[in-house]
Amino acid sequence: MSAKSVKLENVTKQFTDDEGKVMTAVKEVSLHIEKGEFATLLGPSGCGKTTTLRMIAGFEELSNGAIMFGEDNVQNIPANKRDCTMVFQSYALFPHMSVYENICYGLKLKKLSKSEIEKRVTPIMDIMNLHVNKNRMPNQLSGGQQQRVALARALVMEPGVLLFDEPLSNLDAKLRITMRDEIRRIQKELGITAIYVTHDQSEAMSLSDRIVVMNEGRIEQVGPPMEIYQKPKTKFVSDFIGTANFLGGVVDKKDSDRLFVKTKQTTIEVLQKDADTFHEGQSVSVVVRPEAINLSKEGTESAKVLKSVFMGQIQEYELDFNGIQLYAVVADPGGKEVYYDGDSVNLTFSQRSLHVVPA
Ligand SMILES: Nc1ncnc2c1ncn2[C@@H]1O[C@H](COP(=O)(O)OP(=O)(O)OP(=O)(O)O)[C@@H](O)[C@H]1O
Ligand SMILES: [Mg+2]
Question: What Gene3D superfamilies does the record point to (predicted)?
Fold first, then answer.
């Protein structure tokens, strides 16, 4: 198996409907996925994830731009000749073939000998724990087992690039986590380049080396999960990844790595590496993560507890902060003072969980 890098340069896709109306599903997307990297396209329904993946696979032609596998432009290579395979949400197994036959299918098409096929299939079936089910038909398998067969069938092709379109969304919550871990383990073990599509943020966070956040056909931000969470570039990204409170305000003062934002409630100091990209007087929002809010009897910013819920590992609070509702989460409530509905509290904000985005 030799993993390949994938490069998208200014990729655009337009569809024309029956009445001749043009809609742009993917807009000037540029992206470089490294060899052996696990990249996830994440975004709301209709933002262009599947369309992007289908163009990489060769199922959809580009309206503009280029896609490269390694150094090669794949424009003139049809889907079945491209060095990639796709795993679908629906598994798409052949119902009249056994597990073993399903897994071998692509290799038979490639005219590999019986012994060569066995040499490739056996270790993958080991990894995927499929030997006992070898002779069963797909309809005799659970959803998780079927998805494992679909994954094995893709892996035996030893593709340079492995594509996934929401492969786990038909599985129940627990199995989804098991399969997710399995996909990540195998991808790492075999060093495969993987491009994974989902609209589930926890799936994206747990699987990816980098997340590509998409919105309305465009890339909003690309980065490792923690960076996307801690340093979102836009309001959309901060809201889509994790939970965010927003305090609207204007930049009152700034220096090279700090912004002072004047909000209706208070002036907040935020450490921010890209402070340069903002100007004084600019309208902004301070992203306040729920875990950034500390409640106490000391401090200067007063708020009222609207709702307090004990959840075991955390205490959840809904707060009224001078007319703005904030959602706060305090870990290990057993070891801390807990406040209840109607209590007056004071707030402080942990600086490292604050971030400023354009309004
Ligand atoms: N063959 C097509 N003809 C016309 N419009 C299309 C076609 N395929 C996709 N679209 C449109 O392009 C946009 C992007 O669709 P796409 O399937 O890529 O979204 P997605 O991000 O995968 O969404 P979901 O999370 O719901 O799967 C949508 O508005 C969709 O209606
Ligand atoms: Mg889709």
Answer: 2.40.50.100, P-loop containing nucleotide triphosphate hydrolases
